[in-house]
């Protein structure tokens, strides 16, 4: 009986182990299968939603492309305006330089005229002072000559 009881226990233990192993295997296989099925279902749903997403992505792409084109146009317009403003400023700068040169020439002409006027005034003043000195010298020399003549005449009369 020991042999038969032991062999029954061994068979029972072996069957319980097999049953437990079968249950664990079934549980393990069922778990990934349900996750795989859920992933598969989600992917199928995503495939059916893909045209909607593509339309949405295409609309976003078109909107972004339109914005970029508008920005490019604005940038080109700004560059064109900048070039025009630069050309205007260059022309204005050239005109101002010409005006500066004309003003410098007129200032130089006025300074030259002022120098000539001063030289003429100096010459006239020098001439007037010289004439006054000569006139005064003429009168003073005339007096000295008269005085000399008078003394001579007086000394002749005394003799």
Brief account:
With 159 residues, this protein is mostly helical.
Task: Walk me through the structure.
Helices cover 99% and strands 0% of the residues. It has 159 residues and is mostly helical. It is rod-shaped, with a radius of gyration of 64 Å. The model has no long low-confidence stretch (mean pLDDT 84).
Whole-number mean pLDDT: 84
Find the count of extended strands (DSSP E, 2+ residues): 0
Q: Can you summarize the main beta sheet?
A: none
Q: Report Rg.
A: 64 Å
Percentage of residues in DSSP E strands: under 5%
Q: How much helical structure, as a percent, in the residues?
A: over 70%
SSE ordering: H
Principal-axis shape equals rod-shaped
State the distance separating the first and last CA atoms. 212 Å
Structural class: mainly alpha
List low-pLDDT spans: none
**Total number of helical segments?**
1
What is the fold's blueprint, element by element?
Layout: H1 2-158
Identify the notable features of this structure and list them briefly.
159 residues, single chain, mainly alpha
